[in-house]
Amino acid sequence: MDLKTLIRDIPDFPKPGILFRDITTLLRDASGLRYAVDALTEKCAPLGADFIVGIESRGFIFGTPLAYQLNLGFVPVRKAGKLPAAVHSVEYALEYGTDKLEIHQDALLPPGSNVLIVDDLIATGGTAAATAKLVEQSGSRVAGFTFLVELRDLAGRRHLPDVPVITLVEY
Ligand code: AMP
């Protein structure tokens, strides 16, 4: 299946000059959604992860069914102030200013677990690299990353640790 036909391009969103790759048109398509989750499952199974970490918020959409299919637990990484128990935090640079991501301190136990990090899309790689730092702060190991979409021109992979990066659609 050509998943690109199900992803909609929205020019100048959320600001001028950004071509937004809208996956909601893929999500609403029953066979597209099934195909995407099944393909991610098949490609990610060999990584031998112990946990799936999904990045707020579109990483939750793909991370949870992937965890279910691989029979793994799912751990959310959220924007600052959303998680109720004790957290590890990491601040990372945006185009303008900084942002903060958090993970529960007791989410990735036992220490030394292998973690697969999931998001819908990799652009500059800053968000995924910050999430990898949270996994390391938790005493765990990043086994790999998976994204439905990769924007290759932005070379986000070079900001990630040297582990497998699995993607389904490239622009
Ligand atoms: P980055 O940290 O630059 O890799 O940005 C990744 C995050 O921003 C992901 O959670 C994406 O959902 C979102 N994002 C960045 N650029 C785009 C884009 N062109 N279209 C859709 N989502 C984007």
Q: Sketch the major β-sheet.
A: 7 strands, mixed
CATH names the topology as Rossmann fold
List the helices and strands in order: EEHHEHEEEEHEE
**Which strand order spans the largest sheet, edge to edge or round the barrel?**
5-6-4-3-7-8-9
First-last Cα distance: 16 Å
Q: What are the low-pLDDT stretches, counting only 5+ consecutive residues below 50?
A: none
Question: What is the CATH architecture term?
Answer: 3-Layer(aba) Sandwich
User: So what's the oligomer here?
Assistant: single chain
Percentage beta strand: 25-35%
Please identify the structural class as seen in this structure: alpha/beta
Shape: globular
Question: Which molecules are bound in this entry?
Answer: adenosine monophosphate
Instruction: Indicate the CATH class.
Output: Alpha Beta
* Number of discrete helical segments: 4
Fraction in helix:
25-40%
Radius of gyration: 15 Å
Number of strands: 9
- How many domains, in number, for the residues? 1
The residue-averaged pLDDT reads 97
